[in-house]
Design a protein that fits this description.
The protein contains 9 helices and 16 strands. The chain has 360 residues and is an alpha/beta fold. The chain has 2 domains: 174 residues, Medium-chain alcohol dehydrogenases, catalytic domain (Quinone Oxidoreductase, Chain A, domain 1), CATH 3.90.180; 139 residues, NAD(P)-binding Rossmann-like Domain (Rossmann fold, 3-Layer(aba) Sandwich). The strands form 3 sheets. Strands 3, 5, 6, 7, 8, 15 and 16 form a 7-stranded mixed sheet that branches. The protein has a 6-stranded parallel sheet with strand order 11-10-9-12-13-14, sandwiched between helices. α1 packs across α9. Bound molecules: NADP nicotinamide-adenine-dinucleotide phosphate.
C-alpha cells in the first residue's frame, strides 16, 4: 500500500521506543529522533514527520488529497506540547485542510470536488491536515465556495472563520459602524490581521492594539485607522475606566480582556476568541450591570454546519479580505516545525499557509 507523509504528534500515552515500528522517518529528514525540531522525550507531546498509509488514518467517509493546510495557534500549542490540546495520541496535527476529494462513500461528495475542513476534531482527536491525505466524516466537509481558491481557503482557515464568526456575532448584537470605534487586540496575529481588514471593509473605525512597534505601517495598510502600542498602554485598575469601544475582538485574554471589559462604551460588545496572553479573566460585574457590556464567546471549531457554511459564504463575498495575499505567506511542508516556536513567541505576522501538495 502506498505511503504518504504526515506530521504526527506523539504524547505521553505513546512509547517512543515501541510505538514506531510501523513508521519510517521520512527520507530527507534526520534519522536520529533527537535531531528532529520540536521532538522531545521528556513526557511532553512533540511532533515529527512519518510515513503512513490510509489505513493508519482515523475513519471517515471522505478521503481528501491535501493541497494546503495552515498553522493556527492551537497547532503550535499541540505540536510543541506547550498546551494540552491533543486528546488522543498519536495524532496527525493540523486543524485545517483544503484539497480535492479522491474518494467518498457519501453521495454529497465525489472525486474531484474542491473542499475545506476546519476545526471539529481535526488535529485534536482525529488525524488532521498536516498530511498528504486526510480522511474525515462527510459531515465535517464544506464545499469550496465560489470565488475562493484552495490557497485562499487556507490563508483564511480557522483564523478566517474565527474572525468572520466574531464579526457576525457582534453584528447580531447590534454592532454597527456608527456605534463607535472597534478595537482588535493581538493585531498582527492571524485572526486579527484578517479581522482588521474585514472590519475596515465594512466601514468600521478600527483601532489595532499590538506589541510590535515595527508593524504599525503594516497594520495601517490593512485598514487600521489608529494603532495602540502595548507597551504604552495605561490599563488603570478601576472597575470602570474611560469608555472607548463600541466593539472589541480579543485574541489575547488575561489582563487585556479585563481591561477591555472596563473600557467598553454603553452596550459595547466584546468577542473573546483567544488566549495568546493568558486564560485568566479578572474583572467585576460593573461593566455588565452599569454599561450593559456583552461578552460573547467564539468557538469556531464547534460551529454547526449551517452557520459554518454561511460564514464561508461571507468569507468568499462581503467579508473577503481584499489584501488576503498580503497577510498570507507560504511555508513548505518540511519547514512546518520551525513555525511553531515563532508563533508561540508572538513573532509571526499574518497567516502561514502550509504547501503540502508538491507543485506539478
Ligand atoms: N476561538 C476560536 O475559534 C479561535 C480560532 C482561532 C484562533 N483562536 C485563538 O486566538 C488567538 C490568536 O490566534 P492566531 O492564530 O491569530 O495566533 P497568532 O497569529 O499567533 O496571533 C496572536 C497575536 O497575539 C499577540 N500576542 C502574542 N503573545 C502575546 C502576549 N503574551 N500578550 C499579548 N499579546 C500577545 C501577538 O500580536 P501583537 O504582537 O500584534 O500584539 C500575536 O501575533 C489564540 O489564542 C488562538 O488560540 C481561537
Amino acid at each position: 500500500m502506498a505511503t504518504f507523509s504526515a506530521y504526527r504528534i506523539f504524547g505521553e500515552t505513546t512509547s517512543h521506543s515501541t510505538g514506531l515500528s510501523d513508521e519510517k522517518l521520512l527520507s530527507g529528514h534526520p534519522k536520529d529522533d533527537s535531531q528532529v525540531a520540536g521532538y522531545e522525550e521528556d513526557g511532553k507531546s512533540a511532533g515529527r514527520f512519518v510515513e503512513l498509509t490510509l489505513d493508519d488514518l482515523d475513519p471517515g467517509e471522505v478521503v481528501i488529497q491535501t493541497h494546503y493546510s495552515s498553522v493556527n495557534y492551537k497547532d503550535a500549542l499541540a505540536a510543541t506540547g506547550a498546551g494540552k490540546v491533543i486528546r488522543r495520541f498519536p495524532c496527525v496535527g493540523g486543524v485545517d485542510v483544503a484539497g480535492v476529494v479522491v474518494h467518498s462513500d457519501d453521495t454529497r461528495f465525489k472525486a474531484g470536488d474542491e473542499v475545506i475542513v476546519t476545526g471539529y476534531g481535526m488535529g485534536v482527536d482525529h488525524d488532521g491536515g498536516f498530511a498528504e491525505y486526510v480522511r474525515v466524516p462527510a459531515n465535517w466537509v464544506v464545499p469550496l465556495p465560489q470565488g475562493l481558491t484552495l490557497f485562499d481557503a487556507m490563508a483564511l482557515g480557522t483564523a478566517g472563520v474565527a474572525a468572520a464568526l466574531s464579526i457576525h456575532r457582534l453584528e447580531q448584537n447590534e454592532l454597527r459602524p456608527e456605534n463607535g470605534n472597534v478595537i482588535v487586540t493581538g493585531a498582527t496575529g492571524g485572526v486579527a490581521s484578517l479581522a482588521i481588514q474585514m472590519l475596515a471593509q465594512l466601514g468600521y473605525h478600527v483601532v489595532a492594539l499590538t506589541g510590535k512597534d515595527t508593524e504599525h505601517d503594516y497594520l495601517k495598510s490593512l485598514g487600521a485607522a489608529e494603532i495602540l502600542s502595548r507597551k504604552d498602554l495605561e490599563m488603570g485598575t478601576r472597575p470602570l475606566e474611560k469608555a472607548q469601544w463600541a466593539g472589541a475582538l480579543d485574541a489575547v485574554g488575561g489582563e487585556t480582556l479585563a481591561w477591555l471589559t472596563r473600557t467598553m462604551q454603553q452596550n459595547g460588545v466584546i468577542a473573546s476568541f483567544g488566549n495568546a496572553g493568558g486564560i485568566e479573566l479578572n474583572t467585576t460585574v460593573m461593566p455588565f450591570i452599569l454599561r450593559g457590556v456583552r461578552l460573547i464567546g467564539i468557538d469556531s471549531a464547534a460551529t454547526a454546519m449551517p452557520l459554518r457554511r454561511q460564514i464561508w459564504q461571507r468569507l468568499a463575498t462581503d467579508l473577503h479580505p481584499k489584501l488576503l495575499a498580503q497577510v498570507a505567506h507560504g511555508v513548505p511542508f518540511t519547514g512546518l516545525p520551525q513555525v511553531f516556536p515563532l508563533m508561540l513567541q508572538g513573532k509571526l505576522r499574518g497567516r502561514s499557509v502550509v504547501e503540502i501538495k508538491p507543485a506539478a
